[in-house]
Amino acid sequence: MTDYLDIRFPEDQQEGTEAVLLKWLKAPGDFVTAHQAVAEIETDKVVVEVTAPADGTLGEIQLQEGEPAKPGDLLCTLMTGRNGPAGTKKQVTSAEPVSTTSQPIPTPGINTKGRGKLSPAVRHRLMKYEIDAGQISGSGKNGRITVQDVEAFAQQEMAAEPIDLGLHSTKIPHNNMRKRIAQNMVSSLMHTAPHVTSVFEADLTAVMRHRLEHRDEFDKCGTPLTLTAYFVAASVAALREVPQANSRWHDDYLEMYRDIHIGIGTALGDQGLIVPVLHQAGQKNLKEIAAGLADLTTRARAARLTPADVRGGTFTISNHGVSGSLIATPIIINQPQSAILGVGKIEKRVKVKEVDGQDVLAIRPTCYVSLTIDHRVLDGYQTNAFLAKLVETLENWNA
User: Fold this and answer.
1) What positions carry a catalytic annotation?
2) Is there a domain that residue 30 lies in?
3) Which of 57, 94, 257, 381 is 20 to 30 Å from 117 at the Cα level?
4) Residues 216 and 334 reside in one and the same domain
5) What's the count of helices (H) and strands (E) in the chain, helices before strands?
6) Pick from 27, 61, 80: which residue ends a domain?
7) What total of structural domains would you count in the chain?
8) Which residue, among 143, 378, 392, has the nearest Cα to 246 in the 3D structure?
């Protein structure tokens, strides 16, 4: 007897993000084993692999490459059972989504002759870029045109022949990550939270001395001792001092978290920004924080983060100084959090210090630290108390 199982986009693989079916790794009729990846789904944050729930043969595909996907959506069927296929490829009558007609759906202005059916996502992009389907060689099964084929053709055309609108320019389509970042930033700043930013200066002499004394010890354990680890540890101390900064605003109440999960803004070059989360940062010592940060940033830049790695943050740090800026304001709050810390470039500055009752000039490594807050949650008093505790922790570091 042959059984049929549904392969769906897992319900727990998405949290407030948009997703598209990026790529089919297997074709209808292919035999797959349990837990073998059959498709990749891309969100604005990570690429999720969808796996087969059992041994069997891939059946009818319900969602094409490039089409939007929501948790629970049916992607395809899987044929299993004693009388079903066993390691051999079986012909499947149709790999197309169910349709009320057996003919390709025509799209005005697009030549589809000889191209087979076009998915809605492909037709949309052909119309968007005003491209004739006859110009594209499909890379899909039986020469089918995929979304990636259209995007690649469009980018090639735009690179070769920039559109002249009086100013010479090239149009570069946004990827999912960039579009989602834009939506989140506009929503946070313009539609959700009133932003206010305070700035303090931190003397990092004690931190630099401690790092110099312990860096080799950390390296021998395979853990780079970065300055970000100190800012995470100092943020934990400040969040305990001002717990309102570790909270979420609701219309009827303020939800204050007992756990401290700190997100670290990680630049991915031209691809955008991602915020992997160091969970339970409040329960970690400096070495454990440094090891956790090294693991997260390495996997973020290798595109190997899991959905769990970017979920559950209660507070975020943006170390914008690594690219040279002294102050960035406002640093937009990572919703639904209530505050975000900004760390500027570390540089040596001449400071006036009092020694034995006399003012003297001293050269110290310093940086500006800023806290951008949701003014519905925190006021200036709590904001300055947070930064005062953060700076005190850094300037008196002796752990």
Assistant:
1) 375, 379
2) yes
3) 57
4) yes
5) 7, 18
6) 80
7) 2
8) 378
| Residue 118 included in any domain | no
Q: Residue 179, exposed/middle/buried by CB under 10 A (0-12, 13-18, 19+)?
A: middle
User: Helices in the chain by DSSP H: which ranges?
Assistant: 120-129, 147-160, 176-186, 205-220, 227-241, 286-301, 380-395
CB 315 within 8 A of CB 341: yes
Q: Which amino acid is at 227?
A: L
Distances (CA, A) of 24 to 42, 137, 143, 273, 299: 12, 18, 15, 26, 23
CATH of the domain at 54: 2.40.50.100
Q: What CA–CA distance (Å, rounded) separates 111 from 116?
A: 11
Using one digit for the tens of pLDDT, what is the confidence trace for 254-300? 999 999 999 999 988 877 789 999 999 999 999 999 999 999 999 99
Judging by DSSP bridges, how do beta strands 74-80 and 3-8 pair with one another?
antiparallel
Report the C-alpha gap between 278 and 262 in whole angstroms: 5
Map tokens 């995007």 to a residue. 151
pLDDT of residue 3 exceeding 60: yes
The domain in which residue 65 lies consists of 3-80
At 330, which CATH number?
3.30.559.10
- Looking at per-residue pLDDT, the higher value among 387 and 45 belongs to 387
Q: Given the structure tokens 């940033």, which residue do they identify?
A: 297
pLDDT band at 12 (very low <50, low <70, confident <90, very high): low
pTM, rounded to two decimals: 0.65
CA 153 to CA 175: how far, in whole Å?
Answer: 15
